[in-house]
């Protein structure tokens, strides 16, 4: 109803709606929702999920890079002509969290939620993009409806990257472009976060080994670069035997499709599965194979 030209609502009813919305969020995303001690500010800590095979490019704005990179560094490692700004790219499945600090006014959801701060872990989203993100989030609020779940899902799914013109599709695969003044500094942090997140998920999940079909906790499994999963004992037994027999080409994924494609293990994967002496022998066999191949070439 109207009171002196100002809309007034039943505050107790609004508080109940807020509590119900928060309870739903916490039940679905317990690791994403935090309340401060006074329960006046809500922090949403939202990792950004990317489709499998997403290419992430970090490319510097030349002017921004010039402002923080010395002349000597620029001339040593960057394009002097400014025609190709420094960049780095890799394949990622997740980006570090977007952090929203939100205050709900007493009459929310009839009054808009107030975004106090927007930040990203490792500051991968630049200031102008964060300002635009705040404006878009504000526009998503509909009077009388909860906004927090909509915001969380929109960020978690990575859809906001399209709205910020940071994402495109080429040949059926998604490409995300992150402008940043120092790609060489940011990219290793993005890669490390991606690796640690994947490792945590693997450790918390049970998988069926593709050899023995036993269900094993992820911490006792090995996830290969091709995404196939095996229990460590099956992989160790197979790879040790192949190394002992000198069949270095079979030290790789045991999935039939990967065997047919000659999918070999990386050195990091081999070190993760077999002992140091087997690793040394595997490296010796690989070097010998490469030498033999070179000698056969005309």
Automatic annotation (TrEMBL):
Membrane topology: Single-pass membrane protein
Domain RING-type, residue spans: 209-242
Gene Ontology CC terms, in alphabetical order: cytoplasm; organelle membrane
A Pfam family of this chain: RWD
Catalytic reaction list: [E2 ubiquitin-conjugating enzyme]-S-ubiquitinyl-L-cysteine + [acceptor protein]-L-lysine = [E2 ubiquitin-conjugating enzyme]-L-cysteine + [acceptor protein]-N(6)-ubiquitinyl-L-lysine
Localization per Swiss-Prot or TrEMBL: Membrane
Residue ranges constituting the RWD domain according to the UniProt record: 20-164
The protein's name: RBR-type E3 ubiquitin transferase
UniProt source species: Trametes coccinea (strain BRFM310) (Pycnoporus coccineus)
